[in-house]
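Tutorial handout. Part one gives the primary structure; part two gives the three-dimensional structure as tokens.
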Amino acid sequence: MGAYARERAVDHITSLAARGLDLRAFWDASAEAVSSVVPHYMAPCWFTLDPASLLVTSHYDHGQIPELPPEWLAQEYYEDDFHDMAGVARSERGLSTLHEASGGDPSESPRWQANMKYGGDQEVLVALRTPAGEAWGILGLYREPGQPRFDGDELAFLRTVSAQLAEGARRGLLIGEASDPDGPEAPGLVVLDEEWTVESLTPGAERWLSELPDGDWEGQGKLPPSVLAVAGRALRTAEGESAPGEVALARVLSTEGRWIVLHGASLVAAGSRRVAVIVEAAHPARITPLLMTAYGLTEREQDVTRLVLCGDSTAQIADRLSVSPHTVQQHLKSVFEKTGVRSRRELVGRVFFSHYEPRLRDNERRAVEEQPLRGGPMATNQGA
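Part two.
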């Protein structure tokens, strides 16, 4: 594959990420661009992660395996292996092949053994991280036995497009949650035409607009200046369908004293120019209040648990929280008692299967029914 073809694929994925596509549409369109540069077996496997915990929230492989086998999830979260998704997501390189991770012989890997049941000998996992370092997903590609290893040019391409794929996934989840809200804190979506007229609002968007300063949407239909500013920046950089421009961002202090983030993305198609503005709370880590509600964890115990979920060691947790390793161990002892587990691995599995597997299964169903996919954990009863 030549440098020109790789450059075209990078440009295409960058363009897709800025179009404001829903997640399934973004994955479908991106798969073609990725496959044009990196040949692989079957379809790409796309996973979204909760960046606060690095646990899986959705899986999509274009309908080839509509539901992940329970044993695959148990292996991912209860067994040790040469590499796993959370480990790749937090690694400096942000990419790992199973053959490299296993020293060239993956035959002892439970992951490899499971992949081989589907005919996949080689596996590469790519962390989809934004420029700010937040991991919003993992891309998995596979090759059947007897095929060449993923080479340096192919891996370099995957690393190059990982940030754009992360941005597209992040906005796809926001659009999905805004279009089909899962609760009162779901993002809101406002679509404007090129005359600055509101074309559509998603359920709950009015509440976000009322919180933004200097607007009067409910009384006079006046949009807050921050919405217009973000929309204007997004439209100014749009040149057409092949070059939809930049995604504009703004962080605004609301009238209620909390930070709100606005994302503006142009929607350029068939000669018309529109812009979507997504409005959300600036603190999307929904796992934190969930841990308090489900298990009664203190604020510090929540912090420790979240870092354990992300794979941090005791020393790393102590450094991040500016406490001693002994204090971390004491917090962990309390967390284990409250959650009914005996180890870190059991804690990760408990949180995943109680609060993230329900979200994953709901998203698998929604993908089949062509409904928007959602991110984050699902609030369920303790022990569910």
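Part three, for discussion. The first strand starts at residue 45 and ends at 50. The two ends are 49 Å apart (CA to CA).
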